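Quick one: structure tokens for this chain, please?
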Amino acid sequence: SCSSMFHSISKTAMTSTFINKLPLSQLSKDMDQLFTDFEYLGLFDEYGSCCLFINQLLLQSLRQKNYQVQLISCYALMEEQNQRFFLGHKDYIKPGQLAGHVTCLVNQAFLVDFGLGNLHKCLATAPQAIAFQAQASDHLLGELYLSNLAKIAWHPIDDIPNLAFETARQQPKLDAVFQQLHAFQKNRLKFAIHRALFKKRKKSTTPKLVPRTNFDETYF
């Protein structure tokens, strides 16, 4: 199973999984904590299939900790036995969808992707999030074997035509969610006690993403 083969975080009441293959370091510890924070606040449930939004949120969180982070345009391909699943491939774009996938490159050396929600929905073996050593080349950003029969690879693309527009459109919501995340991180115990006492999450007063666009990524 994944839990025995990889360093991963999983909780009984939570379905998201994180495969962390980073070297033992402060970055690895910070990634574990960020994944746990995102999970606790329900961010994967709400935005885990929106690669641009969730990875922009990750980028801001890592930059706040003084890591060098940039978004990379790509598509992802998961192969399991005779099945192939794409995220953000140009041949499988539907109207209104982001025409590509984005992931984070950290310190010019590590690939971190919190936006694998559609793969995670389609395949029980697919993680929600992943972090590992990049293998940058002209045709490959990195690949990771999940088992003898399954692997995920990230392939760079030149450009996502609607990326700047969608980034600007999401910014107000991104700022609001980042403030919520930052407030939680400053006092996790307070939030935990509040949740234990009231057991009902307050409804967000921040504007929702405009519904005309389906932010779920393409998959096939």
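The radius of gyration is 17 Å.
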